[in-house]
Amino acid sequence: MTLDKHSEHAPFSPPPPQPSPLARSTQTTLTMDEATRNKLLKSYKTQVASASSTVFATLAVTPLENVKTRMQTHNFQNVAQCIRYLWRTEGPRGYVAGRLTSPSILTADVNALLKSGALPPLASVTAVRVMNFTTYAFAKNKVSDFIQRMTGESPLEIYDQEGSSPTVSTVVTFTAAGLFAGLVSSPVACPFELAKNVVQTSVLMSHRSQASNNAPNDPSLRNMPRLSTTEAFRQIYKKYGFRGLYTGFHLHALRDTVGTGLYFGVYETVKQIAEREMGKGTGAPAIAGAICSTMPWFCTYPLDTRKTRAQSVLLGKSKEVGEAASAMAKSSIYKGLSIILIRTAINNMILLSIYEYMNKRIDNLDD
Q: Whereabouts are the Solcar repeats (predicted)?
């Protein structure tokens, strides 16, 4: 065999690496054309819009949610005292407990976050909200169909007419669908909300279960380990069994059923009026979100307080539980209402504005 001078001295170049069959299969599976992607987005519009909006809204109000839970379960005199107490005793981590339980969430990898318990709280609240919106979307169509068979008029068609006003049938449709959605999602939501409450109050429970006067002078509380969500589940199950995960469930189910019915009924009604006056845009969902999220709390807040107090003292020594119960007895069932009204108004202004925006964007995608 004869080689020319150039090929004789050319360096050896290995052939480019070829992707493995598994990699080629994965690339084929994950790659889709625009039409397929748009079809999937339209098929799961409610789930995509509710999940993404929930993540943004939940992260925005997590500090306020932590203050609200402490106000309900411990004998703080006012919101300012609770905020100062949290800062002095628990530091910045006290404001993100129960949602982002790891201080390194922005830098940790997924495996580290799973081990620390940082992802389950946010994932659970997102899953529950997606279930809630999905059930509501299904139920309102069924209720509307039923009313149409009874009266000959479709509430949803009336609602969708440009410049229409609320009617008895539209209000009944949205409220009934909301009642059903709240009832259906409560068995899923209860264990996760229980764990959130236990996580948020775990440091307070370890310090005599209430805001004692010398707590701000105790530097050890800043470094006191906080339960992760998974650890809270494990300890509750170990101590009380499966039934322990549903402590306060009757209060939770009643709160969510009534609250969600009022939430969707007020939201759709106020949004319809606002759009008639302001036109379609982000302003109407934001206004409706603030109103629909605050009004139900005046009816359901006593239920929420009783539920939160029952859940927060599940873990702790018998002496701590007794002190916590004593502190709760001295505290009003409306303690923390002001902070939750601010929190829920901001949360739902963000949530429903993004939700409606994403719905419109997905609707406008090419088929």
A: 41-125, 169-273, 280-361
Distances (CA, A) of 203 to 200, 278, 345: 8, 47, 28
Q: Is 111's pLDDT higher than 70?
A: no
Whether residue 139 contacts residue 180, with contact meaning beta carbons closer than 8 Å, is answered with yes
What are the contacts of 219-222 at 24+ separation with CB within 8 A? Answer: 221/89, 221/90, 222/89, 222/90, 222/91
pLDDT tens figures, 174-219: 999 999 999 999 999 998 888 877 776 665 555 544 444 454 455 5
284 SS3 class: helix
Choose between 329 and 337: higher pLDDT: 337
Distance CA 145, CA 148 (A): 5
* Best CATH choice for the domain 58-363 from the list 3.40.190.10, 3.30.1140.32, 3.20.20.70, 1.50.40.10: 1.50.40.10
User: How far from 184 is each of 129, 133, 253, 268, 362, CA to CA, in Å?
Assistant: 12, 11, 9, 20, 27
Q: Is 208 exposed, middle or buried (0-12, 13-18, 19+ CB in 10 A)?
A: middle
Give start and end residues of each alpha helix (H) in 107-248: 110-116, 119-151, 155-160, 168-200, 202-206, 229-240
For residue 67, give both structure tokens. 């203050």
- What pTM did the predictor assign? 0.73
Cβ atoms of residues 268 and 136 within 8 Å: no
